[in-house]
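Worked example 2:
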Amino acid sequence: MSPENPRLFIAANISPEQRSACAGLISNLTKGIRFTKVYPKWVELENLHLTLKFLGATDTHKIPRIIETVGAAALAHEAFGFTLKGLGVFPHEKEPRVLWVKMKKGAKRLADLHDAVDGALARIGV
C-alpha cells in the first residue's frame, strides 16, 4: 500500500450499544478460542463497522468523487435500525481470517443501501 493508493472501503457506523455488545463478544472469544496457526488481531472497538463495499487500493485523486458519489447514494436512503445476531467467518471455518457478526433485523435495508452505493460507484468507474 502506498500513500498514493490507500486501501479503502465504504462502511456504516454501528451504535454505541452494538459496539459494546461486540466488545463483550470479543472479550469472551479471546478467552475461549485457541488459535492454532495465527494469533488474531482484533479490530479496535472504535473501528468496528458494517462494510458496504471494499474498494482496495484507490488512487487518491478519485477520493473526492467517491465521497461525493457515496454521499449522494446514501442520502437517497432513510436512516434505519438493525440488530446483530450470530457469527460467521471468512473464507472458511477451518482457517478463518475474518470473523463477522450476522445481521438480523435490517438486512434487507442494508442490502438496498449496498446496491445503491455499488451501482453509483460503478457508474463512475469504481
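The chain is about 35% helix and 20% strand. The mean pLDDT is 85.
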